[in-house]
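I'd like us to work through together how a protein chain folds, taking it slowly. To get us started, please write out a protein record for me. Label the sequence line and the structure token line clearly, so we can match residues to local backbone shapes. Once you have written the record down, we can walk along the chain together.
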Amino acid sequence: MLLAVVALGVSACAASGRSAEDDVYQRGEASYYADTFDGRPTASSEPYDPTALTAAHRRLPFGTRVRVRRTDTPDAPTVVVRITDRGPFAHGRVIDLSKAAARSLNMIGDGVAAVQLEIVERPASASDEDFSTGGGGW
């Protein structure tokens, strides 16, 4: 049964011409918020909560849900976060994670980790233009 499900998934990707790689929105480095931001308002006016699975991105609309996959470790942990803030503004960084999200990716000790982003859910008010990477130049 499992083999049939796997075969069906592989043939569906082949038939559509899509691969898992097609779902990657962006690659780069992730960092996470310092404890001093706890309770401060984010760009969406929601207070930052280090225990929530949230993140900052420069362009994605607020409310977008993004799967963040760590790519620099063999176990490749993932976490789904909701965009609530703008940033990061350090060169090469594509997302700033809440402390809980960083903990899910096992990156607390490292501080920064290589990641890829995949959009899981778009807010109803967003257009396709809001999700353009503009040639990947972040």
Summary: The first strand starts at residue 26 and ends at 32. The chain has one domain: 21-126.
